[in-house]
Design goal:
- It is built from 22 helices and 24 strands.
- The strands form 5 sheets. It has a 7-stranded parallel beta sheet with strand order 11-12-10-13-14-9-15, sandwiched between helices.
- Helix 17 links the parallel strand 18 and strand 19.
- Helix 4 runs antiparallel to helix 6.
- The chain starts with 10 loop residues before the first helix and ends with a strand.
Length: 668
């Protein structure tokens, strides 16, 4: 059903919904709220944290006044909450002055400012206490774009729920066996819950449905592959041991076990399909280079794929350094037409032994003479079919996929059930652990002064923001704003700016210049999260740290401490609160990425680990839901039972249709 058939959806609003990956009425029904306003209870303002969003009951104690300060004017009023005074201000809303009456009792809903012990509210929504029509119950909040309003989206969702058939894909016999609740009721409760318990139960039921279909699709796409070994490696264990001595450091026990696993795999009767997981700084790349050596020393070719040009270039430099007797090539989207043509011709003719590159290596016209080993670095950025597309460029090619993003075992066992898993738990002894601190706002100036002193001493820093552009509420500083502010605050420090909207070539050049110490500090979004290795970077500063997942923060922290110098990670809170501080304390007190990932999974639910991307667009179907990790195990169990029972042709077709872009399903 078309979006324009829903209540209140004009062509203009439909285009704005398209930007949110909503194209049909069915998509509208599955557009889950990103949050809920709890208007069931009121709060005591003096007990609230800075930036909390709350509902308070209050009495207006003064007549509203219009205050002008330079170019800005606002309406200000004094109120009382539980006998304690506070102020409320409204910007760009002069009509408020006529709506509020001195002595009147109201409900205010909005953001608290409580920086200096004097609470206030900014732009709160309000209703008279005795005539409250809007500020009650549990109200869903949806992501917005363009001309969309919350009311328009809520009306469209309600209409979609009335008109769309929401039928479970789980076979009736399985639904009956496990007494699963009605799916249509779950959709009603996720959008309009009466209680938070209703919302949680609905999220769990819908997540179960989504994972059931997703896992079923994985079953279909992975099934029935011939894994018999085609290529025979001639490289001996003695050759590998001699090669490992090239590294300027001894391999850790974990690295040695990983190299042994790869050696055993490539000399076994079956093709290798292995996931190498290791915490940041555990030395996975050295292990991968050992694997590449095994292939090249046996007379075959190898390919090393990375998600970004910066990382691909870094891998290429390492290959050239440690495998100088072999011929290496580089291939990326920003390579010139002449370079691409030359590399492709050399690979096809067998004149190159190994190629490092980005997604460009996956193009149909990239052919190999004798591809034996494929390495996917930071594999969580690549999907199932992308990995397959690379391995299929060689007859029976072995596959080694690597991740420095610790994937909770609960997820890896399900989504990488087709892979053998090797984990590197230890780290090189030369690396000092990174000291992590949660920095309060009162210490911000001291922290900047410290960065300035470190820059003079030759040490570099990262400043990371959660977003590129200005926040619609203005509550989160953008990376461009931060860049301008820092240049003014620390004029003697050389700053560079990096974000995802820049072209690959520009990003690679900035990173290369930062690594070459032409800049002291890099102000960036999370584009620097993956694999970047700058030994002289000793400080990582993350703004609005509460907006990141713990695993992502752990990745960012891993960008420092890559040399022998003591390094620091400073976490800045944009919104104070007990839950945010408790989460960040886990990171502060923990250096084991796998433990952090498991904790993150428990705290946030697996929707934040799994992202589905189709046609280059992210779909937030599962992401906005919150549910316990046990849902995934239940979904796998139900899928296993459904396939064991047989007669799943319709389910298989539905699963593949829903996840037609399964090649782009990635773990975040």
């Amino acid at each position: 059903m078309k979006l324009t058939e829903l209540k209140g959806i004009s062509d203009k609003r439909a285009k704005d919904l398209n930007k949110l990956n909503i194209f049909t009425a069915e998509d509208m029904a599955r557009f889950y709220p990103r949050a809920y306003l709890d208007l069931t209870t009121t709060s005591r303002l003096s007990a609230c944290y800075h930036n909390d969003v709350v509902l308070v009951s209050c009495r207006v104690s003064s007549a509203p006044q219009t205050v002008s300060t330079g170019r800005r004017s606002f309406v200000k009023v004094w109120c009382e909450n539980d006998g304690e005074p506070f102020s409320a201000v409204w910007f760009n809303a002069p009509y408020v002055r006529d709506k509020l009456k001195s002595g009147g009792e109201y409900l205010f809903y909005g953001r608290v400012q409580n920086k200096y012990g004097a609470p206030s509210m900014v732009n709160p929504t309000f209703e008279p206490l005795e005539r409250n029509y809007r500020l009650k119950g549990i109200v869903p909040v949806y992501p917005l774009r363009g001309s969309l309003s919350q009311r328009a989206v809520r009306d469209a969702v309600a209409d979609a729920l009335r008109k769309v058939a929401l039928v479970s894909a789980i076979p009736p016999a399985v639904r009956k066996k496990y007494a699963l609740s009605d799916l249509k009721k779950a959709y009603s409760d996720i959008h309009n819950p009466v209680t938070f318990a209703d919302k949680d139960a609905a999220a769990e039921r819908i997540a179960l449905e989504e994972y059931f279909i997703l896992i079923s699709a994985f079953k279909v796409i992975k099934g029935g592959k011939d894994d018999a070994r085609v290529l025979r490696y001639t490289c001996t264990r003695e050759q590998v041991e001699t090669f490992c001595a090239r590294f300027p450091f001894p391999l850790t026990e974990g690295q040695k076990r990983a190299v042994d696993d790869i050696y055993e795999n490539v000399h076994s009767p079956n093709r290798m399909n292995r996931l190498l997981q290791g915490d940041v700084g555990s030395g996975k790349t050295a292990v991968a280079i050992c694997g590449i050596y095994m292939a090249l020393a046996s007379g075959y070719q190898a390919a090393m794929l990375a998600p970004t040009e910066v990382l691909a270039e870094q891998n290429y430099q390492l290959i050239c350094r440690y495998l100088p007797e072999f011929r290496a090539g580089f291939l990326s989207g920003s390579s010139s037409a002449k370079e691409k043509k030359s590399v492709k011709a050399a690979l096809a003719a067998g004149e190159l032994d190994v190629v490092c590159g980005t997604h460009a290596v996956l193009q149909d016209d990239v052919e190999f003479a004798s591809l034996a080993l494929c390495v996917c670095d930071e594999q969580h950025r690549f999907g199932v079919a992308q990995r397959s597309a690379l391995s299929e460029k060689g007859a029976g090619a072995d596959m080694l996929v690597m991740s420095a993003t610790p994937i909770p075992r609960t997820l890896s066992l399900i989504f990488y059930g087709d892979l053998d898993i090797t984990e590197i738990k230890d780290k090189p002894k030369a690396r000092a652990p990174v000291t992590t601190a949660i920095v309060p706002s009162r210490k911000y100036d001291d922290m900047l002064a410290y960065v300035g002193r470190e820059a003079k001493a030759g040490n570099q820093s990262y400043f990371v923001c959660p977003k590129i552009e200005e926040d619609e509420e203005g509550s989160v500083m953008s990376v461009t704003e931060l860049f301008d502010e820092l240049k003014n605050r620390l004029p003697s420090v050389r700053f560079a700016l990096l974000h995802g909207k820049m072209k690959d070539k520009e990003k690679a050049e900035i990173m290369q210049n930062f690594k070459a110490k032409k800049f002291d500090c890099l102000v960036s979004t999370t584009v620097i999260e993956v694999g970047v290795d700058v030994p002289d970077a000793t400080i990582m500063i993350v703004y609005n740290a509460e907006r990141f997942g713990l695993s992502q923060l752990h990745q960012l922290r891993g960008r420092v401490g890559r040399g022998s110098k003591q390094s620091y990670c400073f976490l800045l809170l944009g919104a104070d609160g007990e839950e945010a501080r408790a989460r960040l304390a886990v990171l502060k007190n923990n250096t084991d990425g796998f433990k952090i990932a498991e904790y993150d999974l428990e705290m946030r639910g697996s929707g934040d680990f799994l992202g589905t991307r189709q046609s280059g667009k992210f779909i937030n179907e599962i992401r906005n839901l919150r549910y316990p990790p046990s849902v995934i195990f239940t979904a796998k169990k139900l899928s296993d039972e459904a396939f064991e029972a047989g007669g799943v042709e319709a389910l298989a077709a539905l699963a593949l249709k829903k996840y037609s872009g399964l090649k782009d399903v990635v773990l975040n």
